[in-house]
Amino acid sequence: MTRLDQVVPKIRSKNAGPFWLTIDLFCETPDRFERVRDGVASKDVAHALGVPEAELKRFDIADLCVVKFSVPRPQIQGTRADRDMHGASFAYLLAGLSV
Amino acid sequence: MVRVLIPSGALGLGYDRAALQRGLTMAPDIIAIDGGSTDSGPFYLGTGSSKYSRNSTKAEWRDLMQARAAAGVPLVIGTAGTCGADDAVDWLVDITRELASELGQSLKLAVLKSGQDPTKIAQLGPDRVTPLAPSGQMEPDIAASCTNIVALAGAEQVNAALATGADIVIAGRTTDTAIIAALPLARGCHPGGAWHGAKIGECGALATTNPNSGTILIEFDDVGFTITPMGDQARATPHTVSAHMLYENSDPFVLYEPGGHLDVAGAIYTAVDDKSTRVEGSIWVPSGRYTVKLEGARCVGFQTVSLVLVRDPRYVAHIHEWCDDIVAKCTAKAQARIKGHFQIELRVIGADATLGALDTGVQKGSELGVLGIVTAESDALSKDVAKMLNPYLLHHPLTEEEEMPTFAFPFSPPELSRGALYEFCLNHVMQLDHPMDAFRLTVEDLTP
Questions:
Q1: Model's pTM, two decimal places?
Q2: Chain A: residue nearest B255 by CA?
Q3: Which of B110, B114, B274, B347 could disulfide-pair with B150, CB 3.0 to 4.6 Å?
Q4: What is residue A3's DSSP assignment?
């Protein structure tokens, strides 16, 4: 098995407002982009983030060699149950997905 | 053509002063800077306060007020004081009055306020207030309980402030882009280009190869825009510019603003030279309804936290059992001794404190921190329950048949009061008949 972070040089997660989380996979080359686009299933991403697949938005952006996922935040930013105010750590949940 | 000079992504973040000085030599028509966002959490809106230090804010605002005087153009800030609530606007207005006096400046100040009366917002029906994904209809009780609600102003309100002839505009909550897009739109530049350039520029030099340099210049015209960083080493390339549409955006191609939305799916990014990038082909799609986004925050409890360090290898190995047992026993004891709602949570730092149950790749080190969080309906109750938690964190044994252990507290007392806990609680837009309906504009003359 190849881990996603062995293929993608940079995975960034961040809030997109208090109610959304967005994760960018910077693949940097067309080869790696195509491998990630074809090899990472949306359902696996949704499962790793703990959200229903129907709520996941996916953008495969060839021009930037980026695959982007956005989901409603598993916990709204800053609520009692939220552990990560800026959403920075969710990237690591995708790092171990297999490609 | 309209040239907008953007000193940095937010007042208080810092910037390269040489880059700002270079920007002033480029004949800007306006200096525009953002004062905040929701990104630091609900506390700032809940309390109407600023995240950044008053001294840092004043030092940077002093530079910008001097830059404005030197350039002879307006200076505008949006979302003043991190959250853009009325109290945070007043805070920056006070700083501005002090600086006008210290710098010997006479100037006209326009103040645009975005604060809303929570009781009135709560009375609006679903024809006026509609939810944004993933939220449902506004709950009037929750809206009414907000300590602050702000409406996000767009270009129309910022332009109303600029039209007063103000030297400085201090705006409450605005969209991040409105302060940059306003003047180009007022002067007839391409609307798609104006909003797209504003989105690219709202974080300063973040859309360049050298984010810390801060200052950028965007030239808007009737076809599109050109971005040029003012930092020595910074370059704005088609890649850095187009990739910025990913940043903090759930949809990288569409951006909703008061009065319509921006669509950049057809935008073309072209390198002008080594340093600058030209963008054309973005589209502004006007909407039939004029809506502004609402943000609200309310107090949902009070917190007291404790931190204990666990170094014993057997306790490290069984840390979650230890924590679960403490939460169960302490909760039962507190319920027997006090009246009122509270929750006790223990997060294991060094294991899964960041991601909780979602984390499938936990690796523990030689020691762990256990963060005890008590949330209660009053400050006094949260402190009292945290004191009941203390003996457990200090001495709780994994089994009954063992010598009493002791764990490491870094402080005395070990409990730290966090005060009120705030939550964001509006993710809705409000329809207005006229853009200024929800906003208040005042003008005053400052003299040294």
A1: 0.96
A2: A16
A3: B114
A4: B
